[in-house]
Structures are given as structure tokens and as C-alpha cells.
Specification:
Structural class: alpha+beta
Radius of gyration: 22 Å
Largest sheet: 5 strands, mixed
Number of helices: 8
CATH superfamily of the largest domain: FAD/NAD(P)-binding domain
Helix content: 25-40%
CATH class of the largest domain: Alpha Beta
Bound molecules: flavin-adenine dinucleotide
Number of strands: 15
Shape: globular
Order of helices and strands: EHEEEHEEEHHHHEEHEEEEEHE
Number of domains: 2
CATH topology of the largest domain: FAD/NAD(P)-binding domain
Strand content: 15-25%
Distance between the termini: 9 Å
Length: 280
């Protein structure tokens, strides 16, 4: 049994803590905020729980659906036909299927065809390692032309990433197009999953499962320092909270990266991120 420390009680941190407990480890989660959930957290709006950011699940999110099943809340996932719009030159256009693309006015047919081919190839490709070193801007421009990039992508990237818009990875955009693009009932109908009660349903259930399995969640405790000692050994300390007068170490043990322990389900460990440390 290893001692595992997870930094952050967002959905990834909680899921990896749950997984480590399933593997029989002793688990501590340290969370800077007073609430678990991270970006999938919620806030109280006059007695109504509202998500900080809206969340949906795609058909390709198999690990998420597996986790919901394990937690016994798969029946809370509702698949809904959904639609999108494309606001262009003062008009809201229908969006999200081939006919919608062809019917957008004032865009040259060749630009639409290039865009359509681009999305089709994105959704069919299984691996695309060449994208790791490309920016989304140069990759999309190569497929859709400057005109296609400017009309369909530039504003979206600028509003989402601001000064980083030009350097966002092509690999990230590709997986996003593929993930959302393949979440469909048919070629004409997109379908997305929503959790009854919002992401809070998953967060609450993960917290309950962690606590029921003797895991420890420390809210209001920011990891402040990771000290590398003896090569790959790491040490974590945490911030003073209102309950502690002085900073103290979460453990006197040395920690090593969980993913390198070689004893876990590697596929899932990779998915869950690298902010997980476990003792030798
Ligand atoms: C507007 C918006 C919409 C989204 N929509 C979707 C969607 O529809 N579907 C989907 O799958 N994903 C969506 N996401 C992404 C999703 O929210 C994230 O992928 C997910 O929350 C990442 O989880 P995480 O645990 O890795 O990180 P986070 O949720 O960011 O959690 C990190 C946690 O670590 C804590 N922390 C940070 N530093 C420290 C420290 N030093 N010590 C201790 N704790 C620390 C933070 O307080 C936080 O609680 C959306 C995100 C946004 C912003």
C-alpha cells in the first residue's frame, strides 16, 4: 500500500483519489478552496445550486460514463438532442450539420467545402501525432484557408484564449472537434449528456465515496511546495489553515509520481493527470 497525495479536489483530483482508494492505497486530497469541485464546482443562488460553468458529457467520454456507473449514478445521465447556432454578420444561423453549413449566406462555397472536409477528416482520424507540434492556427489555416480560419475560428479562439489564441495546440482542438463532433444520434442530430443536478451530482458522489473508503479530503489546504530530493523523490508541504498555527508537512515520507509506479491502470492514470504523488 502506498501513501497517495492528490493536489486539488477538482473532478480529476477526486476521480484519481477514488481510483487510488480502489487500488487499496492510503489517500489524502489537499484542496486550496473551501469547496471541492474546482471548475465543476457550484454556488448557491438564493437556495438554488448553480454550476460555476456549464458541463456536458459526450458519447466519446467512456471513462466518465464508466465512473458514473461505478458510483451508481449512471441513471442520472440524460442524453438530449442539442443544437448550435453560428452568429455571423448580424444573423444567427443554424449550425452543426452539413446542410446548415451549406446554408450559411455570404461565405464562398469553396470555404464551406474545405471546412466540411476538415471536420469530416477530424472526426474519422484515430491518431494524429503530427499535431503535437503544430498550433491550431497554422493547422486550421492549412486545411480551411485563411478565409476559413478567419470566418469560423479566429473569434472563437480569441474569446476563449485571449493572448494565447495563436499558440493553442492543434492536438487539443482536434480532440475537441472529434469528441463533440462524434457525439451524435445521426449525421443531422447532435446529442449531449447532462447530469441531473449538474456536475455537483458527480462531485458529491465522489466525495462521499472517498470518505466512505477512509480517504481524507483537506479543504482550505493549498499545496505550497514540492521538494525534489534524492532524484525523483518529492515532498509536499501545505499551507496554514485557520485550524493550524504553522505550516506542516502532509507526510514525512518521500513521494514519487504515481504514474511512474507502474502498478496502476496506466490508461486511466494518464487520463487523470500527473498531479498525483505516492510514496515508495
Ligand atoms: C466554461 C467551461 C465549460 C466547461 N465545459 C465542460 C464540459 O462541458 N465538459 C467537460 O468535460 N469539461 C468541461 N470543462 C472543463 C472541466 O471543467 C475541466 O476539464 C475540469 O474541471 C478539470 O478538472 P481538474 O480537476 O483537472 O481541474 P480543476 O477543475 O481546475 O480543479 C483544480 C482544483 O485544484 C485546486 N488547486 C489549485 N492549486 C492548488 C494547490 N496549490 N493546492 C491545492 N489545491 C489546488 C483548485 O482550487 C481546484 O479546486 C469546462 C470548463 C469551463 C471553464
Amino acid at each position: 500500500m502506498a501513501k497517495v497525495v492528490v493536489i486539488g479536489a477538482g473532478p480529476m483530483g477526486l476521480a484519481v483519489a477514488y481510483q487510488a482508494l480502489q487500488g487499496g492505497h492510503e489517500v489524502y486530497v489537499v484542496e486550496a478552496s473551501q469547496e471541492p469541485g474546482g471548475m465543476a464546482g457550484h454556488f448557491d443562488f438564493g437556495g438554488i445550486s448553480i454550476e460555476r460553468f456549464y458541463h456536458f458529457v459526450c458519447r466519446a467520454d467512456v471513462p466518465t460514463v464508466t465512473l458514473l456507473r461505478e458510483l451508481g449514478i449512471a441513471d442520472k445521465l440524460r442524453w438530449k438532442p442539442t443544437s448550435m447556432g453560428f452568429f455571423f454578420e448580424g444573423r444567427l444561423n443554424r449550425w452543426g450539420d452539413p446542410l446548415a453549413l451549406l446554408s450559411v449566406p455570404k461565405i464562398p462555397l469553396i470555404t464551406k467545402l474545405r471546412y466540411g472536409l476538415f471536420v469530416l477528416v477530424c472526426s474519422r482520424k484515430k491518431k494524429w501525432p503530427q499535431l503535437e507540434t503544430k498550433s491550431a492556427k497554422e493547422w486550421i489555416t492549412a486545411w480551411c484557408g485563411e478565409d476559413g480560419y478567419k470566418r469560423f475560428w479566429e473569434t472563437l479562439l480569441q474569446y476563449k484564449f485571449y493572448e494565447y489564441a495563436d499558440s493553442i495546440s492543434a492536438a487539443w482542438i482536434w480532440t475537441r472537434i472529434k469528441r463533440v463532433g462524434s457525439s451524435r444520434k445521426s449525421i443531422m442530430q447532435e446529442e449531449l449528456g447532462y447530469l441531473e443536478g449538474g456536475s455537483r451530482t458527480l462531485i458529491d458522489e465522489l466525495v462521499a465515496a472517498i470518505e466512505a473508503n477512509s480517504g481524507h479530503i483537506h479543504l482550505g489546504s493549498a499545496a505550497q511546495q514540492i521538494v525534489v530530493a534524492n532524484g525523483r523523490k518529492l515532498l509536499i508541504s501545505r499551507r496554514t489553515t485557520s485550524f493550524q498555527r504553522s505550516p506542516r508537512r502532509i507526510s514525512h515520507d518521500c513521494f514519487r509520481i504515481y504514474q511512474r509506479s507502474g502498478e496502476q491502470n496506466t490508461k486511466r492514470s494518464k487520463l487523470l493527470g500527473s498531479a498525483v504523488l505516492s510514496s515508495n
